[in-house]
Amino acid sequence: MEPAVLAAIQNFMQQMSGRNASGISPWAIRPDAIAASLQTVRAIRSPQSMGEVASNVVSINRRGSPLANGSFATRIGNIAIVPVIGPLVSRFSWQYWSYDEIVRDLRLVSSMPDIEGAILDMDTPGGMVDNVDSVPAEIARLREKMPVYAHANFCCSAGYWIASAAEKIVASKTGLVGSVGALIRYVEMEGILTRLGANVVEVIAEQSPNKRLSRDSDEGKAELQAIVDDGAELFIQGIVANRGVTRETVLDDYGQGLVFASAEALKRGLVDQIASLEEVLADLAGRRENSLIAASATAKAGTEKESTMLTLETLKAEHPDLVSAVRAEGAADAAKAERDRLIGIEEQAAGLSGHDELVKALKADGKTTPAEAATKILAAEKAKNVDRLKGLEQLDQAAAGVTSTLSGGDGSEKKFPQNAEGWKAEWEASAKLQEEFPTAESYIATMKRKPLKAA
């Protein structure tokens, strides 16, 4: 396994262990599928170079051409394909797929007038419970405009939660579907720290005695159980609302955490059909053709009923009140269209910071559509991430080859390289630095910022 993939897996497992910034949180995911899913995500994202998607991405799959620059969503004709791949987290990450990214793709699809149907391309073991409900909500809004299907190759846990919001779930013949439920995985690290010589000190306010309950105590276990039970219940209620089934049906037929092959999933009602991606595309295209035929027939019938034709001059002369009403309605429609355009642009920037001036300019030009705004905002966000990576690289380069001097008690001096290993050694050799910085990592982070301040 590639070192970068292994590092991503270790990072992901740390998040599952409750050592992420938000603390303990429930997950809806199949742990046994994390490694393979992360490699899939890395294979898709690896063509990125300095924030741009390489032109060969589309040529290696059968999912059409990019929907917009910088987006992994694609289109085949008038049908959009929105990927839901690998372990899922709440916010944007280069290593994992995120709910924010899926929502942004769905909004992009909604803003494109020539898109007439959408497919959720499901290949995920699941992910965080936090923020997952934002995706079904966005799918519901998109379904008001067009049909939305989910094609499930690997559709488990939080992934199934998302797919359940689609009009139809279609599984591939070799697909795996299910794992309805939630879990918390917690790794207690204090024992390891103690063995390494660390003295773990913790003081809890008298007003909050339950702030850090021991995970070994009955109370601590009850706290975790309540959190994970709540996540599972939210999952179940989401399926009840999305699939139109009862809670008892979910508990009795959906496996209570089991994963099913496509045929069994179809028998149990987790999916509606077994078919390939191409068959799903043909199904949606057929619906479009049928709707066009119906619209044509309606228009023809209306034309046959029309017995007379009015010119604009005749209409103005004979029906001035009607002309005024039409003009007023047209002005109102134009005003509404402009409001919708401005709101659409603001939605594309929702949850992202640092793009206020760009959004202001896009709104002011009077012509940029929400779809065009999404492309420009996404490009700006990627450029910002690239600049951040370049800044970190410049910090490392600025520190290379520089040394610092630590004075000994006998007047001797010892020099340390100005890089992460040197700063760590310097911290370990200095009682004064250890008093000022609680960990070597905090000292290293401080030293890395110094070149930026000097610049």
From TrEMBL:
Boundaries of every Peptidase S49 domain copy: 141-285
UniProt GO MF annotations: peptidase activity
GO biological process annotation, one example: proteolysis
Region (Disordered) location: 403-422
Highest taxon of the lineage: Bacteria
Family matches, as Pfam families: Peptidase_S49
CDD domains xrefs: S49_Sppa_36K_type
InterPro entries per UniProt: ClpP/crotonase-like_dom_sf, Peptidase_S49, Protein_C
PANTHER family per UniProt: PEPTIDASE S49, PROTEASE SOHB-RELATED
Family: Belongs to the peptidase S49 family.
Protein name per its UniProtKB record: Signal peptide peptidase SppA
Source organism (scientific name): Rhizobium mongolense
